[in-house]
Amino acid sequence: MRKIWKRLRFIIKIRRFIPFLIEFFRSQEVSMLKKMLAILLLSIYAVFPFDIIPDWLGLFGVIDDVAVLLFILQRIVKMAPSHLKNKYDI
């Protein structure tokens, strides 16, 4: 139950990711390797058009896209320095 609550809280705070990502990529504390990995993950998500659940199934098709995007954002948050996570309360 606790894990589900953490994921729901993560989804609610998604509006904070734009400034977080900007600062993540501008930060000197984040290694270039981590920045390149984040760019690679985001690029793979944007480039490959296939889905687990097709988009023509309505809401269910969108849910898998959101799940993949949240997974990628969670990986980027794990790579970020702790002060950056604390600043945006992520």
From TrEMBL:
Q: For this UniProt entry, what is the primary localization, expressed as one broad class?
A: membrane
Topology in the lipid bilayer is annotated as: Multi-pass membrane protein
Under the heading Pfam families, the entry gives: DUF1232
Q: What GO CC terms are in its UniProt record?
A: endomembrane system
The UniProt keyword set, sorted, is: Membrane, Transmembrane, Transmembrane helix
* All residue ranges annotated as the DUF1232 domain in the record: 37-71
| Protein name (database record) | DUF1232 domain-containing protein
Whose protein is this, by species?
A: Parageobacillus thermantarcticus
Taxonomy of origin reads:
Bacteria, Bacillati, Bacillota, Bacilli, Bacillales
